[in-house]
Amino acid sequence: MCFRVAVISAYLRGWMPRLMGLLNEPHCGVFPWTYFHSHPEVQTKMLRSLTAFRLLLLTMAVLGLLVPTGCGVKGPPIPPKMMPPPPVQDLQGRVEDGRVVLTWTPPGRPSGRVMDVAGFRVYRSRIPLSDSDCPSCPLRFEQAAELSLGGDARARMTFSEALQAGHGYTYKVVGYGAGDTRFGDSNLVELVFP
Questions:
Q1: Angle (CA) 11 13 15, round 5°
Q2: Cα separation of 158 and 64, whole Å?
Q3: Are 163 and 193 contacting, i.e. CB atoms less than 8 angstroms apart?
Q4: Can you give the three-state secondary structure of 56-100, one letter per residue?
Q5: d(Cα 144, Cα 121) in Å, to the nearest integer?
Q6: Buried b (16+ CB within 10 A) or exposed e, 23-62
Q7: In this structure, which long-range contacts are made by residues 49-55, counting pairs with CB atoms below 8 Å and at least 24 apart in sequence?
Q8: Where are the extended beta strands (E) located within the chain?
Q9: pLDDT in tens, 114-130
Q10: pLDDT tens digit sequence for 30-74
């Protein structure tokens, strides 16, 4: 065995006494053997450096196990949750010449991270007056129109459509944003067209 193999072997197995025994064997014939054996201060320094090297490796191994490594998923950062804007609260309706006219004001933007309103969908529930004897029955809404929000976000919006005689109508307006995100329902407007 030469000097390096002896040091590595002693380090891996943790046998310092064996290292000392190998260093006393004359069969290797390498200059560091005799120098190491004849100078006790060199022996002490080498043993200290090996101990320090072991501590360094142990510290690196422990830190390598303790340092968190990430989840491994790479992608764009996720933005914080955005709040939907408040629903329309001033939906009004009237009947003019056999048509319904609905008007409302888009909700204002409160402070904080709020999604932008891209437009509104008008929903209608139509029930024949002959079937209106069930006031607690659920309303079935269908989309009547989709209106994009114009340049002025605070301009009053209007929707109009023809009514069929002998029906009761209930309307509501729902805002939507980017990615077809649906916001809250407005107040209901009920109309009867006999």
A1: 75
A2: 65
A3: yes
A4: HHHHHHHHHHHCCCCCCCCCCCCCCCCECCCCCCCCEEEEECCEE
A5: 8
A6: beeeebeeeebeebeeeeeeeeebeeeeeeeeeeeeeeee
A7: 50/7, 50/10, 50/11, 50/16, 53/11, 54/11
A8: 92-96, 99-104, 119-128, 142-148, 157-162, 167-176, 182-185, 189-193
A9: 567 888 999 999 998 88
A10: 445 555 556 667 667 666 776 778 878 888 877 777 766 666 666
Distance CA 55, CA 61 (A): 10
d(CA 141, CA 193): 18
Distances in Å between the alpha carbon of 28 and those of 6, 41, 49, 86, 157?
Answer: 11, 22, 23, 87, 98
Structure-block tokens of residue 45: 């320094």
Helix (H) or strand (E) segment spanning residue 42: helix 40-66
pLDDT tens digits, 12-37? 555 555 555 555 545 444 445 555 55
Q: Identify the weakest region by mean pLDDT among 79-83, 88-92, 155-159, 162-166.
A: 79-83
Q: What does pTM read for this prediction?
A: 0.57
